[in-house]
Amino acid sequence: GAVVSQHPSRVICKSGTSVKIECRSLDFQATTMFWYRQFPKQSLMLMATSNEGSKATYEQGVEKDKFLINHASLTLSTLTVTSAHPEDSSFYICSAWGGGNYEQYFGPGTRLTVT
Amino acid sequence: EDQVTQSPEALRLQEGESSSLNCSYTVSGLRGLFWYRQDPGKGPEFLFTLYSAGEEKEKERLKATLTKKESFLHITAPKPEDSATYLCAVTGANNLFFGTGTRLTVIP
Fold it and tell me: Which chain B residue has its CA at the smallest distance from A37's CA?
């Protein structure tokens, strides 16, 4: 149980374009989903927290107009990187929390490369 | 401010050589301490949750323990497939806060 999927697993895009990443909880309803980014050999940095049906809460320093998050249902959250630039290249990971025991279950990650 | 420090940053072990990874934490009102395993290019895989000092949990060759200031992940007789980065995270009043991890390499 507690499986979280992400799509796509890898994406390469040109500078200035937008990219959408999907995060799905496959076997449970996620009241809250989280988006992280991870640079090589560094730990996960929380970008934003999204609750189903409400606006996402962004961490300090994360541009909400650049990283658009939509949590349309209890099983799906999307992260859209708008007007991507090479410095946005990173590993983006989502996680989902079903409530209760504070445990977060992570997706497999999406490797974004902006050329 | 919530803080998590993991040591060592990297650890090389011979197959069968037991050792421990450390996670020291400072958090307001600990709700849970979590251990994850992360393989290169993949998302973290949940291992354990510990909620209170004195608690211990085991899974195969791994055993996690918790005190009021730190947690240890003990690895007994490791195998090469245990090679990964082990992440510790805590949650208190805020969201999950991660340490920088320990990169474990087990040499056959």
Answer: B43
